[in-house]
Amino acid sequence: MNILVCISNVPDTTTRIKYSADMKSVDYSGVQWIINPWDELALTRAIELKEANPALVQKITVITAGGADAEPTLRKALACGADDAIRVDAAGGDSLFTATQLAHAVKGEPFDVILCGIESSDYNGSAVGGMLAELLDYNSVSAVSSLNLEGNSVKVTREIDGGKQSIETSAPVVLIVQKGIAINPRIPSMRGIMTARTKPLKVVAAAAAAPGSKVVGYQAPPQKSACKMIDPENMDELVHLLHTEARVI
What we know:
This protein is of the alpha/beta class. Helix content is 26%, strand content 29%.
């Protein structure tokens, strides 16, 4: 089997977001870029499966749609244990645009299992994985929290209301994974970092597609009010503020 892991290049989750003066774009100056956390867990599980089943899993490929500034993130994925990488040279766009670019790059390629994180930590759209499956005409399973391979069978567990559901399907399939697919993300070793420099990273031209939507503007959340300290013995004042200001009682 060959596994493809879709990687989103996102700002570090501790990044302080800044906007342009007209509030129509995000100011990315000084941002530290990382692998989207859900995609990182998907990659970790793919590596675990290859290590446990070397005769079954032949290759792990990572792919992203983005500019040249996304290549360090792909190199980190290679350092973690992926075998090769693909960058679709298409920056910007909505979920449909991204899914279209990914589908264009891998259509016809022998990928048996495609892993997508449930969402990216920047826009939280939760749409690319499902759209990619439709564009490729692959089976898909969402909310996957466990993945195992047995021969040509793909066995997954997914979260549902009130419990869990076990599903067995066949390749090719797109799996949209969430928390639980792996416990701890794989950390690159020094040897992995060194070998990542020589692993193949292919750049694919963007498909002729236009985004189906565009960002009109951003609105920052209202600033939190100053914290008020109440004497722990003054319960009447606490109740009064909870009732008149916080309006929770």
